[in-house]
Design a protein that fits this description.
Length: 175
């Protein structure tokens, strides 16, 4: 299975991005997870920009989403909501074919952020017929460094939870 892991944080030291990278490392070679951490490069969405050739950053993003078997998404909460950069990325996909039947699952890197989680669940179940809401994996990683996150997630119980989660998502994608 080939997954794209989409981080909702544009921050260079993002805990969400670090978690997704650690998940990619833990689950290889069974699954190929490519982390997309470039939402900050996407221009602000406007339907006016969809008519002609897409901006390069958008083309790369859309190609990566279109080419994967499923999307794993993890995001911080900003001001009790979905960060603007992530919502912008999703807006770029809305009127396109790549997202409609794409299996999507959520991870979360914080003990907080439940308002954002409620909103993203509504958005993802709107843009895709295959948002897998029943599957969800959360770790408490807020303010941890990249190496602390790697160590935390490589604990046997956590690695097993990650492998099980990604395995279950792969089974969902195959259905
Ligand atoms: C501008 C801004 C607004 C935030 N608003 C909230 C919020 O409303 N609720 C919350 O729980 N955390 C909030 N946070 C904290 C982030 O969600 C939290 O630090 C998250 O773990 C950061 O993820 P990252 O490390 O992937 O960037 C906010 C952070 C920033 C920078």
């Amino acid at each position: 299975m080939k997954f794209t892991a989409l981080s909702g944080s544009a921050r260079s030291l993002s805990t969400n991005t670090a978690m997704l990278r650690a998940v990619a490392a833990i689950t290889q070679p069974d699954h190929a997870i490519s982390v997309f951490d470039k939402i900050g490069d996407l221009p602000v969405f406007s339907p006016d920009l969809e008519g002609g050739p897409l901006p390069e950053a958008v083309r790369d993003f859309v190609t990566q989403v279109g080419g994967c078997d499923g999307l794993i998404l993890s995001s911080p909460e900003y001001v009790r909501a979905i960060p603007g950069g992530l919502k912008n990325a999703i807006d770029w996909l809305v009127s396109r074919d790549e997202i409609i039947d794409k299996p999507i699952v959520l991870m979360h890197a914080s003990h907080r952020g439940d308002d954002m989680l409620a909103q993203i669940r509504l958005v993802l179940s709107t843009v895709s017929t295959r948002f897998c809401e029943d599957l969800f994996l959360r770790f408490e990683l807020m303010n941890k460094s990249q190496s602390e996150i790697e160590s935390h997630l490589s604990l046997p119980a956590h690695s097993r939870a990650i492998a099980g989660f990604v395995g279950e998502f792969a089974a969902f994608c195959r259905r």
